[in-house]
Amino acid sequence: PDPYERSLHHFSGLDRVLSDNGGAYRSHLWRDTCTDLGITHKRTRPYRPQTNGKIERLHRTMADGWAYARCYSSEQERRDALADWLHHYNQHRPHTASSNQAPFSRLINVPGQYT
């Protein structure tokens, strides 16, 4: 799917998005997509990565744990490894912010959780 279709899927239901000032978030396509979805777009202050600290930390964790954790033979192999890494990260890896529990364990009323 094209970027517009992907954004419709990922952002539907949101009312606001915070992003950095990267070119993708200054494009007409991004602006029009936000408008079409009724999303208010806010940007972080330039040269202030602290504003986006949580996502910056996630990017670092993804780089260390998945993207550059090993040598991949192709970009497709790297992409194929993402689903397994995300499953481990969200359902098995202890997080200090949640008393060394995996994030998934903190959710309630997840379909199929109690079967």
Characterise this structure.
Helix 1 (3-11) runs parallel beside helix 2. The chain starts with a helix and ends in a 24-residue tail after the last helix. The chain contains four helices and two strands. Strand 1 (16-19), helix 2 (28-37) and strand 2 (40-43) form a beta-alpha-beta unit. It is mostly helical and 115 residues long. 44% of the residues lie in helices and 7% in strands.
Question: Descriptors for this entry?
Answer:
single chain, 115 residues, mainly alpha, two-stranded parallel sheet, 2 strands, globular
TL;DR of this structure?
With about 120 residues, the protein is mostly helical. The chain has helices at about 5-10, 30-35, 55-65, 75-90; strands at about 15-20, 40-45.
Order of helices and strands: HEHEHH
Mean pLDDT: 86
Strand order of the largest sheet: 1-2
Distance between the termini: 34 Å
Shape summary: globular
State which percent range the strand residues make up: 5-15%
The DSSP helix count reads 4
Radius of gyration, Cα only, in angstroms? 17 Å
Return residue spans where pLDDT drops below 50 for at least 5 consecutive residues: none
Which class of secondary structure composition applies to the elements?
mainly alpha
What about the largest sheet? 2 strands, parallel
Fraction of residues in H or I helices: 40-55%
Please give the number of β-strands. 2
